[in-house]
Amino acid sequence: MWQLYGQDHVLRQLEASLKQGRLAHAYLLVGPPHVGKMTLALNLAQGVDCASGPGVPCGGCSQCTRIATGHHADVRVVGVIPSPAGEPTRTVIGIDDIKEVLHRTSLKPFEGACGVIIFDGAEAMSEEAANALLKTLEEPPPQVVLLLLTADEEALLPTIRSRCLRLQLRPMAKQQMAERLVAEHGADPPEAERLARLARGCLGWAISARSNPDVLAEREAELARMQEAWESRLEGRFSYASQLASLFFRDRESARQLLFLWLRWWRDLLLIKEGAEEYVHNSDRLAPLRLQATGLSTEQVLGFLKRLLQTLDALDRNANPRLALEVLMLDLPVSP
Ligand SMILES: [Zn+2]
After folding, report:
1. CA of 180 to the centre of ligand 1 (A)
2. pTM of the model
3. Which of 65, 121, 205, 257 could form a disulfide with 34 if both were Cys (CB 3.0 to 4.6 A apart)?
């Protein structure tokens, strides 16, 4: 069975293609971090190679089990592997990482009906690696399905995007997620409600936040830094912009996620101004939100929200991050 919830639009499409034997050579799985791209990729690999397939994977045969545990010779994951402690973080999928795996596409699958290669964080490919992949996409080998996973499709070469069938994963509804967290992950209802509210539709985030306290602590720290920038004068705000810009160079997706944190905060401020507190995302932060909202006019909140969206858009279009973020900080209303 499928392990992915709340993505029926994608599953129906894949199910039909599997049954008719008309799977595309390459798919682009698009969605925010932790929305379920890797779950879908592994599940699809099972659907391709399942002993009773192709079709909806049984989940129990030896093919399905080996794929789920990462022991299937024909299903490979290529991504940025965290560096050992003390070494600089490697944020690029290089040519050496994908050369070997692409070579494998010319060979027959060893044990399954079809090989599946999963590129996790496909936007992180070096130019050389992307060009090598493009060659493979231009002449797709038989018996191999390529799955490109990305949270930032704009950062991929348009020529790569155009050769993949795009599948958009949607954030899961809050209520549905809370129910899943209770039913399958042992959360109690208030905890499930709180996590579902913070998870922005990404079940994987809620599950990791439950088991790993660092995830929530990280959010606390980011909110504190955001608050500090709000309370600072220009110098402090520029220093925040500069930190965010260097994060953007190192890890583009994390920097975008930080701007989304700002965006949700300022949407919350707008909801409070409009008297719709029950919809606030950061519901555990009502007191500071209310306090900040009283010092701002609705026009100021709307104006800054618009600036945040423009900045995200400009960064997607490869604007200079430092400049874009400094200008954003100039437009941050002055705290009373
Ligand atoms: Zn199976």
Report:
1. 24
2. 0.80
3. 205
